[in-house]
Amino acid sequence: MAAPKPEEISHPPMDQLQGLEYCIDSNPSWGETIALGFQHYILALGTAVMIPSFLVPLMGGSDGDKVRVVQTLLFVEGINTLLQTLFGTRLPTVIGGSYAFMVPIISIIHDSSLQRIEDPHLRFLNTMRAVQGALIVASSIQIILGYSQMWAICSRFFSPLGMVPVIALVGFGLFDRGFPVVGHCVEIGIPMLILFVAFSQCMQYLKNFQIRQLPILERFALLISTTVIWAYAHLLTASGAYKHRPDLTQVNCRTDRANLISSAPWIKIPYPLQWGAPTFDAGHAFGMMAAVLVSLIESTGAYKAASRLASATPPPAHVLSRGIGWQGIGILLNGLFGTLTGSTVSVENVGLLGSTRVGSRRVIQISAGFMIFFSMLGKFGALFASIPFPIFAAVYCVLFGLVSSVGLSFLQFTNMNSMRNLFIAGVALFLGLSIPEYFREYTAKALHGPAHTRAGWFNDFLNTIFFSSPTVALLVAVFLDNTLDYKDSAKDRGMPWWAKFRTFKGDSRNEEFYTLPFNLNRFFPPS
């Protein structure tokens, strides 16, 4: 038997991911685009409902307050997504709520001055205003770093090797949002997981299964499987299967326990300062600034992943910094409207680009329209928002993993026969998982983070930073990558490939993917 040729046992590195049906600036038919946009909207509902459902009761809010917060969050998500896809990075990314803000917000909720308020609704309003004030002040971090191009300067220290752990842990770091939540209701979660995997990959099993040359099941796997399992969950609920089950099981499995539909108004348009004038506290703002930094780092990794799943080149430093500036504007809007969390790139929606193989920017803009529309029509939006959480968690198991694998794909531009590279990638990945897990376990047992001094803002700052897997990975990977024999290892790090994407004019394709609309580049020339 003849020895295999080198090209038969290796694959050449590729700037753009192949196998996508539509890239960033190509669009499906209008009917398909609208259906895909609605699918992204349904997926975005998971985080938009989960965060308020956890935080609002802690603040003393009612079901009506929870519905208003969900509506407001979706409304601002739609605005931020449109701004980002039009004027920011222009990548097909949904800008949604972020779990990175949970630590400082919970700290504000437990502030003694707010806990002393006896009236639950008054406590909710005062807590909301305190969170708003902290978000408004903290948003200045991303606005300054983005529009001053300081983040573009920082990105000069990034290499393909340094970005691998960051992008990979953008997905892997959310493992606790996946199967642990599926396990809360296995009779719904596991069928959803199996069905979604089967539908999304059916083209790989059934190569000839097409209807009018349109791979229906693969492209709309989320909508179809969610509809089937949601109907199945409703059937279990109506049949009384959960009638005598524990409360936790009922909350996670039943389709009628969210109390969103009954509490939602028919029409309600969110507006700035709807909860009253924000209040400002220096300690709250400092703690929130850590969450803004974490959001910045996580979004940087997600933007890199989105560019690959949209079959675009990596965003140049100028474009990345521009996107961070607009994301800062988004957090400012979060504070003004009162969404109870800040903004970041929705990782699950990035994963859906790969699952559907449609990286079209227009699809995401249509999904933003759905977010704004249904956030104003309260009853209709609440209907979709009542989907049980384990259904979303089952989808996350696939989509978070897909985003993580995109991060690992950047290893193709590096030399993984180098012990230096193996050390950096392995240590950054391990510590990026291990350190946040330590912080989570410590907090669950002690009811406070490992950083526990008299300075609450200092505690919030450190605990927030080290709760984030991508942030820990960035700190470790970038430090090691720029201190361990970095001058003689440029080729091993992947820098020759990376260098041409650092500037807007470094690659001719950047103009196609990242040029501003309406000929705005005349006024804001790229660097």
TrEMBL record:
Q: Which GO terms describe its cellular component?
A: membrane
- Keyword flag DNA-binding: no
The transmembrane residues are: 38-58, 91-110, 130-148, 157-175, 181-199, 220-242, 282-303, 363-385, 391-410, 422-439, 461-480
Query: One MF term from GO for this chain?
Result: transmembrane transporter activity
Chief localisation class: membrane
Provide the topology term for how it sits in the membrane. Multi-pass membrane protein
Keyword Transmembrane, does the record have it? yes
Q: Which UniProt keywords apply?
A: Membrane, Transmembrane, Transmembrane helix
Intracellular or extracellular location(s): Membrane
Family annotation (Pfam families): Xan_ur_permease
Can you tell me which family this protein belongs to? Belongs to the nucleobase:cation symporter-2 (NCS2) (TC 2.A.40) family.
Q: What is this protein called?
A: Nucleobase-ascorbate transporter 2
Q: Which organism is it from?
A: Senna tora
Lineage of the species this protein comes from: Eukaryota, Viridiplantae, Streptophyta, Embryophyta, Tracheophyta
